[in-house]
Amino acid sequence: MDDIHPIAPEKRAAILATLADIERKHDVRVLLACESGSRGWGFSSPDSDYDARFIYVHRQPWYLSVNECTGPGQAQRDVIELPIDDELDVSGWDLRKALRLVSKSNPTLIEWLRSPIIYQQDAAAVAQLRQAAERFYSPLGSWWHYMSMARTTYSRHLGGAAISTKKYLYVLRALLACQWIENDSSPPPMAFEHLLQRLLPGGPVREATEALLVVKRASAEVTAGPRIAAISDYIDQEMAARAEGPTLPAGHGDGPWLDGLFRQMLAEHAPA
Fold it and tell me: Coil, helix or strand for 92?
């Protein structure tokens, strides 16, 4: 798995040190920190960034103040974002924001909770977040999220003679996620190889995709190559078959239950 999801030991150590520094400077506790980008998907290039994302919780009074805990003229923020350097991209969402996104079945947050690369976690808190994500999961909303990604990338990047290896994989991953949602009650896995194993177990398209992955994992992030007929034809076919949205459950959740979970998590996981 390490060769598919490469995390250099010194980069993992740097990310953990950054998270510890965030906890000290912002007086928060990190509940989950994971990889969210191409390394989490399993097709990073040697020069790909490390996209570390995290969910954190403040002390309880931060949520209960009459006046927002901010500097002059600043709104109380529910995100922590560090300046992006040459390799590390680190940012996170406050617990309350994360639970609001859970209530909307936000696919990005669901991916964080299913990332194959975990830097740091409170196992009990993550289990509670995953339970909430399951209760509020919307197959229909998730399908449209991935289809929108596929259509946007397809229209902008797959029409030329030279096609970015990254963009090919972005569209393939999004389309396979849509297929997963159409046929499985669980959210699609974040790891690309799991989608391939289930939905493209063999054949010319799988072989062409595996060859493309070899190129992507060994080349610079901006590498492009000639049109690959097997992959392009497959994408064209799958896009045409999904010109209209499917009939899927929209999902729903219990707001009072989520409020109760938020209070429980504050009591159990907020810094003392």
Answer: strand
